[in-house]
Amino acid sequence: MARDDERPAGPGPRRRIDLDSAEALRLLGSVSLGRIVFTRQALPTVRPVNHVLDGGDIVVRTHEGAALTSHTRRSDGPGVVVAYEADVIDPDTHLGWSVVVTGFAQLVTDPEELARYQALLRPWIDQTMDLAVRIRPDLVTGVLLTADADDCPGDD
Questions:
Q1: In whole angstroms, what is the distance from residue 52 CA to residue 119 CA?
Q2: pLDDT band at 4 (very low <50, low <70, confident <90, very high)
C-alpha cells in the first residue's frame, strides 16, 4: 500500500494562502462532510459528520445516545468549545483547501428550528437523528494549497 507522502505531487512548487473568515466559511458551506472535535472524558474526540451552514452557523444532526449530545446538554452559558474541520484536498496533486472553525456548540432546543434543520439536513447513516447541534463560530481559519503563481500555465 502506497503511503500518501509517497505519491507524486505533480510538477512545480506549492504555495499556502491564508483565507479570510468569509471565504473560509464560503468554502466550508460548499461541502457537506466535516469533522467535529470535542472533549470526552478529558481527551479529544473526533467524529465525522455531515453538516449544513445556516446564517454563518454550522449545524449537525445527532441522536440521544451520542457523546456529542450529552456533552452539549451539560453545557451552561454559550455552550461547549468545539472545533470543526472540513477540507477538499486532491490526493494526487495535494492541492485544495482546509477550514477549521472553533466555537461554541449548543443543542438546538427550539422545536421550530429543530424541525427546519431536520428538513434541511439528512443524516448519512441509517439511524434516528432527532436532535441537532449548532456551532457558533468564534474563530475561523482557512488555507488554500495552490500551485505557485509563477508556475501556473498561461501566466507567460
A1: 11
A2: low
Q: Give Cα separations from 54 to 36, 51, 57, 89, 100 (angstroms).
A: 16, 10, 5, 24, 17
- Going by C-alpha positions, the residue among 88, 77, 113 that lies closest to residue 32 is 88
Cβ neighbors of 121 (< 8 A, separation 6 or more) are 50, 51, 52, 59, 60, 61, 132
d(CA 61, CA 21): 24
**HSE-up of residue 71 (Cα within 13 Å, Cβ side):** 22
Q: What is the pTM of this model?
A: 0.83
Helix (H) or strand (E) holding 69: helix 67-73
